[in-house]
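Appendix B, Record 12. Input sequence as logged:
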Amino acid sequence: MQSARLWARLLGVEGAVIGRVWYDEQAGAVVVAARPRKHQLGRCGVCGRRCGGFDRGEGRRRWRALDLGTLKAFVEADAPRVRCPEHGVVVVAVPWARHGARHTRGFDDTAAWLAVHTSKQAVGQLLRVAWETVGRVVARVAADAEQAADRFDELRRVGIDEIAYKKGHKYLTVVVDHDTRRLVWAAPGRDAATLGRFFDALGEQRCAGIRLVSADAAEWIAVTVAARCPGATLCADPFHVVKWATDALDEVRREVWNTARKGGDTALAGELKGARYALWKNPEDLTRRQRGKLAWIAQVNNRLYRAYLLKEQLRLVFKLKGVRATVLLEAWLRWARRCRIPAFVKLAKAVTAHRASIQAALTEGLSNGLVESTNTKIRLLTRVAFGFRSPEALIALAMLSVGGLCPPLPGRA
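Logged structural output:
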């Protein structure tokens, strides 16, 4: 193998012509002179269109490549500028690096892969770069991958939710494709205007193709979906509906506990205070002691036990699904409306108000479980990176990690 081809493969610049190779004592690095091949000369760095020359630029430029053993490595080349009809005066495109980057494609892809799979310290120490540099690399690689892949192609069933990414009520709105199980869009904010940006990016034709949308009962999601995707059916997330019932049950438990405490029955109040988890947990997960606690509640306070049964029957509705779930939901509503427990009478009104989306969830079997799983992975990315200064860096890393855009390590494809 000729030495020029060997150096090109070592540095991942096979699409270039290799010239002189030397060791730079001052930089402590191996430097390889390169230039694009003839058919790649004079192209816009943004769009790749062949354009007329403008000037010689600011002289020669260096791009950081992956280390060669224990030594840093750089690719050096001229950086003339061209005048593009669309993008104006820009530096010419080079085959070994993305536009605006000071690192080779191989370096960028390796940094992005490591950022997804390892910790902040590991990326910085292995590649000898700052975490801020890794953030810019991740954003660059994610933007490049998004241009190459159509994330919105064949969107039919999506899930929408918000996630807190930073203290001070800082939220992201995330959209997940239920069919590919991937994150397809995210943006800072959690309101109708933020979600509207997703539908703007989607376009009117693709909005019409969305058939099902899973979400919690947030009004801003329901209103935006109804306005932008009139043909889509909104499916209420079963977890949030059951949580309403759990909150109503805990409200009844606190009322009973306060009544016992104010009435001087400290023993009963103490027992009720310790019954919280026995009432909250699913029956199949109860310990022997907690089952005994429930049996005791059934004997001493019929009202609290009826509230527990109402919560469990609503949970059973979503466990059954289909026609049987619809029949059971109707029976539950009749029971809740006449149970004379204010918290559950109020809950019955809320369920009735969202009856259409709840019925759709029962019929279609769609929930926001996949979106919650995606949110958990995004939180993990935040913890591993010890937080992010900007939401854009987190979104870019999330698109690589759970959006299916992470590039393979160089030489492994």
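The CA atoms of residues 65 and 74 lie 5 Å apart.
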